[in-house]
TrEMBL record:
Regions recorded as binding DNA: 34-53
Protein name in UniProt: TetR family transcriptional regulator
Residue ranges of domain HTH tetR-type in the record: 13-71
Organism: Rothia koreensis
InterPro entries: Homeodomain-like_sf, HTH-type_TetR-like_transc_reg, HTH_TetR, MT1864/Rv1816-like_C, Tet_transcr_reg_TetR-rel_C_sf
Keywords attached to this entry: DNA-binding, Transcription, Transcription regulation
A GO molecular-function annotation: DNA-binding transcription factor activity
Transmembrane segments: none
Length: 200
């Protein structure tokens, strides 16, 4: 994006989003991360980011919130395709795990710091939980959907964290997703669903 294009987008109120997107790009590339680096990537002055973010941590919080919003959209896409009652909870977990593997640096950032009550990460992560709870309620109406959603998130998070830490060895993506389905089958008391391709 040229400086002229960025300036034009800024006049339309998109600079904040451009800074967040560029920050995520830099993070995933493993390049040195700073507000100055993000400003250079976007093509604006070094002081421009401070119009939207008071410091590096504030930008990182916004990037983490964007990660949660993106995850929610991917989960919602799966639900919209098959319906809440027909969506196996483990298939949402597969999407969760797949996204973490695709963007490990952003995934790490999403859980790096505790959230304050007014932190946008808190609201964004709550929207992810809402999707899980809705699907849990639709698929298992006789069970505690809140507790089931909590358990499902914890299980998916634990599995992908172990994978990213190298604790499963050189397992393939397909092997990891099979492990996710088998683990959910174990806690839900059902047979694991077949390795059905999930779009998001």
């Amino acid at each position: 994006m040229s400086t002229a294009e960025t300036t034009k987008k800024h006049h339309h109120g998109d600079l904040r989003r451009a800074l967040i997107d560029s920050g995520i790009e830099i993070l995933e590339e493993g390049a040195p991360f700073s507000l100055r680096a993000v400003a250079r990537r976007v093509g604006v002055s070094q002081t421009a980011p401070y119009r939207h973010f008071r410091d590096k941590m504030h930008l990182e919080a916004a990037m983490a919130a964007e990660g949660f919003r993106d995850l929610r959209e991917r989960l919602e896409s799966v639900v919209a395709e098959s319906g809440e009652s027909a969506t196996p909870l483990e298939e949402l977990a597969v999407v969760y795990v797949r996204r973490a593997v695709d963007c490990p640096a952003l995934y790490g950032l999403m859980f790096a710091q505790p959230c304050g009550e007014d932190d946008e990460r808190l609201h964004a992560s709550a929207s992810v939980f809402d999707v899980l709870e809705r699907v849990a309620h639709a698929g298992y109406p006789d069970r505690d959907s809140h507790a089931l959603a909590n358990a499902g998130w914890a299980l998916a998070h634990g599995l992908v964290s172990l994978h990213l830490a190298g604790k499963y060895g050189d397992v393939s993506q397909r092997g990891l997703e099979s492990r996710v389905r088998e683990s959910f089958a174990a806690i839900l008391g059902a047979e694991a669903s077949p390795d059905t391709p999930v779009t998001p």
